[in-house]
C-alpha cells in the first residue's frame, strides 16, 4: 500500500512537468531522403528558409553525419537557414545544433559556423533594435582553427527581450572574422538541431497541494504501523 502511494505521488509530480518537443521541422535534415544512385546532395533544406545560396542537404557519401543519413552543408560569404516561431518577451528559449569543421572541406581564414537566435519584431522581418546581445545572440565557437572531423554540440539559450513577437533560430556561416582572421572558405556541416521554449520546472500550486496531501497520508500510515 505504501509503495503504491509513493508511485502515485511520483506520477503526479511527473505529470505536472510539461513535455516540450523540438519545435523544428526536419531538425536532422533527413527529409526527403537522397535517392539511391542519384546526386549526393540537393539545394536547401526542407522546412527551413534558406538565404545566401550556399546551403545543401548532403548524404553520407559527402560526409558522415552526426546521426541518421544526412546533414546540412553550408559555404559562402554569408549563407544559412532559419525557422521562426511565435514568441513573447520574457520567454526563455533553448537551442543548438551539432557542427562539423569538415576535414574534407575545412574552414579557412575568418570563416565562422554559428548557431544564432534572433528576436524578431511583429513585422516578422526585423530584429528587436540593439544589435548583438539584444536583437540576436550567437554561438560562433566553430571557426577555422576548430579541430577537423569532429561533431561538436553548439548550444544557445536566451530570454526574449521587450518587443519580441517571434524567435528565429538560425544556422549560418560566413566570413565573420573568426579568431581575428580575415577571408574565409570551406564548408562546415550541421546536424541534429533543436529549438524550443524551456519547460517549466515547478508544478502548479493545486498539484503541489495534492502531492502534499499524499505525503501527509504516507506519514500517517507509517505512524499507525
UniProtKB/TrEMBL annotation:
Classification via PROSITE patterns: PROKAR_LIPOPROTEIN
Coiled coil: none
Pfam families in UniProt: PEP-CTERM (PF07589)
Entries under InterPro entries matching the protein: Ice-binding_C (IPR013424)
Transmembrane segments: none
Transmembrane in keyword set: no
Name under which the protein is recorded: Ice-binding protein C-terminal domain-containing protein
Lineage: Bacteria, Pseudomonadati, Planctomycetota, Planctomycetia, Pirellulales
Amino acid at each position: 500500500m505504501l509503495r503504491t502511494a509513493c508511485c502515485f505521488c511520483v506520477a503526479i509530480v511527473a505529470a505536472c512537468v510539461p513535455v516540450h518537443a523540438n519545435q523544428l521541422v526536419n531538425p536532422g535534415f533527413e527529409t526527403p531522403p537522397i535517392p539511391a544512385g542519384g546526386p549526393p546532395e540537393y539545394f536547401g533544406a526542407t522546412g527551413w528558409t534558406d538565404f545566401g545560396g550556399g546551403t545543401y542537404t548532403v548524404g553520407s557519401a559527402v560526409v558522415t553525419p552526426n546521426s541518421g543519413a544526412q546533414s546540412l552543408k553550408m559555404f559562402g560569404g554569408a549563407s544559412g537557414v532559419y525557422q521562426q516561431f511565435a514568441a513573447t518577451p520574457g520567454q526563455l528559449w533553448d537551442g543548438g545544433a551539432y557542427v562539423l569543421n569538415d576535414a574534407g572541406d575545412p574552414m579557412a581564414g575568418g570563416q565562422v559556423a554559428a548557431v544564432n537566435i534572433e528576436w524578431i519584431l511583429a513585422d516578422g522581418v526585423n530584429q528587436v533594435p540593439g544589435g548583438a546581445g539584444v536583437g540576436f545572440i550567437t554561438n560562433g565557437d566553430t571557426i577555422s582553427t576548430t579541430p577537423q572531423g569532429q561533431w561538436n554540440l553548439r548550444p544557445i539559450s536566451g530570454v526574449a527581450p521587450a518587443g519580441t513577437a517571434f524567435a528565429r533560430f538560425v544556422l549560418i556561416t560566413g566570413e565573420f572574422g573568426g579568431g581575428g582572421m580575415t577571408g574565409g572558405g570551406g564548408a562546415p556541416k550541421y546536424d541534429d538541431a533543436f529549438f524550443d521554449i524551456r519547460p517549466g520546472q515547478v508544478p502548479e500550486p493545486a498539484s503541489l497541494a495534492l502531492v502534499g496531501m499524499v505525503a501527509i497520508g504516507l506519514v500517517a500510515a507509517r505512524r499507525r504501523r
